[in-house]
Write a structure and sequence with these properties.
11 helices; Purple Acid Phosphatase, chain A, domain 2; globular
Length: 425
């Protein structure tokens, strides 16, 4: 049993979690009033801005008595790699994948659909982090359908349970497909996430929820997640708050408010870019750099392009411009569609209590068929475990070349080798 907290009120949610290497913490969602932030920024009523209008430094949130279900506040002592977040690309479920889930369910007995074997290879990596965050690209249907693939997705909700089983804690939901089945599809998807105990942000069932910052509360740290999409495939939301759209000032305001509500770390996700590209477009770069320049966001990553994009260290902030696909069907046309990245950001805290990314680990991944599986191409994996040695070598080299094209290697990003950590692959 986990408990979501909204405005300090506990809402019990049933959740079946897979094996974890860490004790689950309380997940907090703390309300923030964005209008106040947008109007006032860092100002206060006591004249704490200078004559030039520069906001005073952000003040720490006032001390609050912990509720019985709250996680203990992290120690103020300095620590190295004291929290970590794993992120992956789009969960893009096409008919081929739910056909595979039906075949796997016939073997495992988890009828009618079992997506866990598809995602199972991710489990050891998610277990080696404090938090795992997925991206649910599409709406989900009712358990018995009807299901639909491209161009208006309505996919089996069992993919959510599988994500929980392998170790995800939260999922972003703002994408160009968010409104494929209208507001009803959004609400159905969020209800399915709630039913499985998977936290979420990016699309909303109500205006008050849209004003809240998602804060994932763990004993190690309180991590806020904000996310937005470049568009909605030409559709118009029934309410302006239904889906977060890319807007740097609005995202910065939400990040600032999350810190005021107690977040130690703020992570931002951008659903944007040109499909199958190998470099970020102007919108991605401008928004990501604006978030980094604000000083309110500690780590930035992206998805949507269905291709791996570069990793950049910009003014001390790590930006993973594109993670490619988490899972998808195999494309016979675009090889990059079948590839992805899993990234772990490791966070440390200095003696003053300030958090920063102290290390960034990335690993290439590949979707294979017969059966459909997510497969790690990490350096400690045996050659030929996913595909032919020649194919794997080509994917590894293509991924490395793109990832390092903006200087990630020189800046300190490393390929993730679990065996070197004693975690096993």
């Amino acid at each position: 049993m986990t408990e979501a907290r909204r405005d300090g009120v506990g809402i019990a949610m049933s959740a079946v979690r897979g094996p974890r290497r860490r004790a689950p913490g309380t997940v907090g969602r703390l309300a923030v009033l964005l209008c106040a932030v947008l109007l006032c920024g860092g100002c206060t009523g006591d004249g704490s801005e200078d004559a030039a209008g520069t906001p005073a430094p952000r003040q720490a949130a006032p001390d609050r008595a912990p509720s019985p279900s709250s996680s203990p506040a992290p120690s103020s002592r300095a620590c190295e790699d004291c929290a970590s977040v794993v992120v992956t690309g789009d969960l893009l479920v096409h008919p081929q994948l739910w056909e595979q889930a039906a075949a796997d369910a016939a073997v495992t007995g988890k009828l009618p659909l079992d997506f866990e074997p598809l995602l199972a290879g991710q489990r050891p990596y998610l277990s080696a982090a404090t938090l795992g965050i997925c991206h649910l690209e599409t709406p989900v249907a009712d358990a018995d359908g009807p299901f639909a693939g491209y161009p208006r997705f309505n996919v089996p909700p069992q993919i959510i349970g599988a994500a929980v089983d392998v170790g995800y804690d939260a999922c972003t939901t703002a994408s160009n497909h968010s409104l494929d089945w209208g507001p009803e599809g959004v609400e159905r998807t969020l209800a399915a996430l709630d039913a499985e105990g998977l936290e979420h942000t990016g699309s909303y069932a109500g205006a008050l929820e849209a004003e809240e910052a998602l804060i994932l509360d763990r004993p190690e740290a309180r991590v806020a997640v904000i996310e937005a999409t470049y568009g909605l495939n030409g559709l118009v939301a029934d309410q302006p708050w239904r889906v977060d759209l890319l807007d740097a000032p609005a995202m910065i305001a939400k990040a600032t408010a999350a810190r005021a509500s107690g977040a130690d770390i703020v992570v931002a996700a951008l659903h944007a870019g040109d499909e199958y590209a190998s470099s970020p477009n102007a919108q991605q770069t401008e928004v990501a750099h604006a978030l980094a320049d604000s000083g309110q966001v500690d780590f930035i990553y992206g998805h949507h392009t269905h291709s791996v994009l570069p990793i950049e260290r910009y003014k001390g902030v790590w930006i993973v411009h594109g993670l490619g696909n988490g899972v998808t069907e195999l494309s016979p046309v675009y090889e990059v569609n079948n590839e992805g990245l899993m990234v772990r950001a490791r966070f440390s805290r200095d003696e003053a209590g300030a958090w920063s990314v102290s290390g960034l680990d990335w690993l290439p991944s590949l979707i294979v068929a017969g059966p459909y599986r997510w497969c790690s191409l990490a350096p400690d994996r045996p050659v030929g475990a996913c595909s032919s040695p020649g194919h794997e070598a080509a994917v590894r080299e293509r991924t490395r070349t793109v990832v390092e094209s903006l200087g990630a290697d020189d800046a300190g990003a490393r390929q993730w080798d679990l065996s070197a950590e004693g975690a096993g692959g």
